[in-house]
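Hi R.,

Here are the chain sequences for the assembly we discussed:
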Amino acid sequence: MSTASPLNTVDAASPANARPASEGGGARRPRRFAPLPTAALLLGALYCLLPVAWVAIAATKAGDELFSTFTFAPGSGLWENVSDLHGYRDGIYWRWMVNSALYAGLGALLSCAVSALGGYALALYRFPGRETIFNVLLAGVLMPPVILAVPQYLLLAEVDLTDSRLAVLLPVLLSPYGIYLARIYAAAAVPADVVEAARMDGSGEWRIFRSIALPMMLPGLVTVFLFQFVAIWNNFLLPYIMLSDDEKFPLTLGLFTLLNQGSTTPALYTLVITGALLAVLPLIALFLLVQRFWSLDLLSGAVKS
Amino acid sequence: MRHRATATCVATLLTATALGGCGAADDGAVRLTYWAWAPGMEEVVELWNEANPDVQVTVKKQASGDELVTKTVTAAQAGTAPDLVQAEYQALPTLASNNVTADISAEVAGVEDAFTPAVWQQVTLGTDAVYALPQDSGPLLFFYRADLFEEFGLSVPETWDEFAETARALREIDPDRRLTTFSANDAGLFAGLAQQAGAQWWTTETDRWRVAIDDEAGRRVSAFWEELVAEELVDNQPMYTPAWNQALNEGRQIAWISGVWAPGTLATAAPDTEGTWEAAPLPQWEPGANVTGSWGGSTTAVTTDSEHRAEAAEFAVWLNTDPEALTALVQTCGIYPAATAAQTGEALAAPPPFLANQPEFYETVAEVAEGAAPAAWGPNVTVAYSAFNNAFGAAAGRRAGFEEALAEMQQTTFDDMDRLGFEVVQ
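And here is the predicted structure of the full complex:
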């Protein structure tokens, strides 16, 4: 896959570079500073970042500092918190993290594959019932996955798969939103002419999909992958209903059990907050890592229009 | 080639996860699963497993709360519920009316004497059946800052009238301090206070339920607190917030009515006040009486899904009445046992570390626990509790309208049961 993307970049970059030359002079007007929108955006940024800052700072506080010192004054217990978390029940936190990575990584990858196949087929093949299928999918996009958790549990109980890792993976494989996105992207990024030309040259359908369409769809699929990854990483209700063995819990569930241990023991606030902070780090890392695919996405999108 | 490698990789991973699901050794032993949230329960169960190779129990650790009740009911509908579940007293009617918990009266005959009648009545729900065995209980006590009470020349109130006087005296001595707060974010405490006054929120009478939240006892308790809140003798801010923690830690609130488990909560909420708190019996409505309510506490229930009901019941009996098990529960899980013999036992000889200054703490608690009023729970406790949060939250904010709030809580609870199809009167 990676061998194809530089090619793509070159293709995309050359016309993009040509364009500013033709109309560049007129486009460069000095920008006016707009205080109102800037202030609104700054406010929005503050609104989003404040809770993150709270978690980051609260994670540095030792248990006796958590509620007694000023909210945004850093504490002195970060290292202690992390080692407490590491020591809690023989480091079960890391097991939860591995579980989360497995569910989110594998789930997003497989769901991405299903979305790519489905989206490609819906975008490029004409067959009876195509619009019906697509409309059903659209309805699926509108349906919050939360309300499906209980029926899915009852279905998986029929085949005796509850409380297994598959019980968390299977329901996330089919993502209506992912297929929808893949179809839209495939329709825009994979020209019918190219597919037709490949057919004329005698290429099989699978080979067209794999060698021609898939590289073209890659930026869109990265988006699908990221959406699914984040959705599964943050998913709570589905694993909550499916799993009862805490060795199989993802992070969301594990932290929830730390918080609710019954009235006889105080909630382990410092551990939960530190755990929440550490749980965000892989997501941040993933976004930084995949960022370059996204800029590519924007670039190729601009060329097509 | 690369795609094939990826595909193989994914297939292998999938198979591995699928196979990871099963793997129980088949050695003829009965295997029971137990959903519990008490920390350290695995270690207590290990004692049983060592002594009973034929009946092996696996603890699956859960988060406590209303969500667990929903999860258990869902699992029971699918036929995949565990053999045993830890359930709070107020969840039992919900579980029993959904046919989740099994009647184990035949299996646990004779165990009744280990518990007080008020506790036992909560697991029979007033019938001949036994839906669970009591594990821990949470009798209400009056926790107060002994050092500040002495400094201000206050005495521990023995009646609710004295409680109001103490609150007034404290405010006159130091207008910045309050005795305690009326919190509208946890109905459990209010339920306990109403129990003390004699409330029976849900009762059954020949095939129908009666909801009596807005009765004489409830009105007495809510009117009492409304007066305190209206005159600003107590605070009106909720518990368990950072502000509440700070108020306790800095001595701006110097008492807390809470369950026997309060020292653990105080240790997190007010770490700087270690060694300054003491516990006393709850103030009484009738001078000289010994009645208290309960807040918290849980049971061990056997599910109808269990294929080994007798073994599961046997384990539940061991866990909640055997001296060795109870000692382990107290020391490892930090619970206050419901079994009366254990309440004065060796394991509870020393006070909790946070209250090390009160060596006779558990003797006080045992005396108070004898007077625990019976609680009566119904199938929609969660609805009543959230109605409490809404109605009393608004009333506490306005410092008025407690009577209407109680009526609203009654009506919401009644309407919900009526809508669910229960035969219900009020």
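Residues 269-304 of chain A form the longest helix (36 residues). Chain A touches chain B at residues 1, 63-64, 67-68, 71, 102, 106, 109-110, 150, 153-154, 157-158, 161-166, 169, 210, 240-241, 244-246, 253, 256-257, 259-267, 269 (CB under 8 Å).

Let me know if anything looks off.

Best,
T.
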